[in-house]
Each structure stands twice: as structure tokens, then as C-alpha cells.
Specification:
By secondary structure, the chain is of the alpha/beta class. The chain has a five-stranded parallel β-sheet. A two-stranded antiparallel sheet has the order 3-4. α3 packs across α5 and α6 crosses α8. The longest helix has 19 residues. The chain is elongated, with a radius of gyration of 23 Å. The structure holds ligand 4HQ.
Length: 247
């Protein structure tokens, strides 16, 4: 998978991809991250990428010409490419979206700054406008890194065989179960006995119970938004019953 990142701060990307799964993915040739300086696609002496908004108001807007030229240059006219714009106005980036992107051979990511890009870019150059969450950041660079990271770990071979990309939170649409390691008791705080029992089906049941319980408490929206099988419905009722009895 090739990631083309277009930014006015290319140095921002020195470092974050040099560790762990992303470093290994780059070394193995599973991914390649190409960072492009938007100012290289300007044609004036000052390498201008922004201008004042039509209609007035605060802040600056990213000019269309450098963005169009940058995308055309890095994609070389290759058709059917996904060109992502990171912006709080975008569709929320979630695990299903990451899975969809992991199937593609190439992704172009445009990092906005200032008040954002000229709407003609959003409407005619970009294929997907993507938000990483409902908060305001100073630019699209960190969101682009988030997308590259989440997509990379879903590319077959990117994780060690001992790990599973989708065992973690959200894979089954639930939060992760709680994890414990040695010592079995620390400052009087005990790890659950069941995890030391060696009974693997009991451990499975306990973990699933805890994952459902944590999801019901913290992110009931994840459960409400799901189609449930009869088995899942029974399981959730079971967890709710134990929660009621314990409180
Ligand atoms: N920004 N998810 C404003 C974001 C953002 C987000 C990026 C700040 C774009 C113009 N991007 N610039 N949240 O807050 O993706």
C-alpha cells in the first residue's frame, strides 16, 4: 500500500512512522509513505498556499491551485484513486472505514490547515472527506497519521503472527475485555481467579461477559447500533442481570 501525504509541514512526519508495526511494515515493503510538500506545487515566488476568504471573515483558506497540482502530480493521472481530505466536516473514521481503505492499493491524504480548503477542492478533487472525531485540531497532519496507522495494521502481514489485528476493541463491535498480568496480587489488589484457573472455556466466557459489561457502561451506543442475534441478546440480558444484582 502506498500512502501519499500532502502537507505544508512535511517534517511533521519525521518520527511517527519509525516505530513498531509501521516501521516493520515499511521495512518489509508492505507500506510506503511518501510525504509531499504542498509548497512544491505553488508557482509564485512566495510559495503561497493560502488566501483571504471571499466574503470576508477571520482566518485564511487553502487555495485550490496547489492542491489540484499536487494531487495530479503525485497520482500521475492514475484513475479510481481514493483522495482523502482530513477535516472535522468529514464522515467519522471508524474501524469499518479502516478495513475498507486497507483493501486499496493506494491512498492520497490531504492535510488541511487554516480554516480549511476552498470548497471546490472538497467537491471536485477529493473522493472522501474524513474526520477522526468531534474536536478541533490545528491541522490534518495528526488525523492523517491516525488513518495511516489504523489502516497499516489491517494489511495482511503487518502484525506479528502472535497478534491479531481485530482481536482488540471494536473488532466484534465491543470494547476490549480487561487484561491482567503478574503479580497475581499487587498492594492487596487481586487479579481475577478465573484467569489463573486454566479453564479456557471459562476464561473465554468471563472475557466476553466483561467486554459486554464494559461496553454497556461506557459505550451503549455501540450496542444500540447493532443487529443482535438471539444468542447475543440473551448474553446481554445475562450481563445486565448480574450488573443489577451487584449494584
Ligand atoms: N482539523 N478530523 C482543521 C481537524 C480534523 C478532525 C483538520 C482541523 C483540518 C482545517 N481533521 N483543519 N477532527 O480538526 O480530521
Amino acid at each position: 500500500m502506498i500512502f501519499d501525504v500532502i502537507t505544508i509541514f512535511p517534517e511533521f512526519f519525521n518520527g511517527p512512522f519509525d516505530y513498531g508495526i509501521m516501521r516493520r511494515g515499511r521495512e518489509n515493503g508492505l507500506i510506503e509513505i511518501r510525504v509531499h510538500d504542498l509548497r512544491d506545487f505553488t508557482s509564485d515566488r512566495h510559495r503561497t498556499v493560502d488566501d483571504r476568504p471571499f466574503g470576508g471573515g477571520a482566518g485564511m483558506v487553502m487555495k485550490p491551485e496547489p492542491l489540484f497540482r499536487a494531487v495530479e502530480a503525485v497520482t500521475n493521472g492514475e484513475p479510481d484513486l481514493s483522495v482523502l481530505l482530513l477535516s472535522p466536516q468529514g464522515r467519522l473514521f471508524d474501524q469499518p472505514t479502516a478495513r475498507e481503505y486497507a483493501e486499496k492499493p493506494r491512498l492520497v491524504l490531504i492535510c488541511g490547515r487554516y480554516e480549511g480548503v476552498d470548497e471546490r477542492v472538497a467537491e471536485n478533487l477529493i473522493t472522501d472527506e474524513v474526520s477522526i472525531g468531534d474536536y478541533v485540531l490545528s491541522g490534518g497532519e495528526i488525523p492523517a497519521m491516525v488513518v495511516v496507522d489504523a489502516v497499516t495494521r489491517l494489511i495482511p502481514g503487518a502484525l506479528g503472527c502472535e497478534q491479531s489485528a481485530e482481536r482488540e476493541s471494536f473488532a466484534g463491535g465491543l470494547l476490549d475485555y480487561p487484561h491482567y498480568t503478574r503479580p497475581a496480587e499487587y498492594r492487596g489488589l487481586k487479579a481475577p481467579d478465573v484467569l489463573m484457573s486454566g479453564n479456557h472455556s471459562e476464561i473465554e466466557r468471563w472475557r466476553r461477559h466483561k467486554a459486554i459489561e464494559k461496553t454497556l457502561r461506557r459505550r451503549p451506543d455501540l450496542i444500540r447500533g447493532r443487529i443482535l442475534s438471539d444468542d447475543e441478546r440473551r448474553e446481554i440480558e445475562d450481563v445486565l442481570r448480574t450488573m443489577m444484582n451487584d449494584e
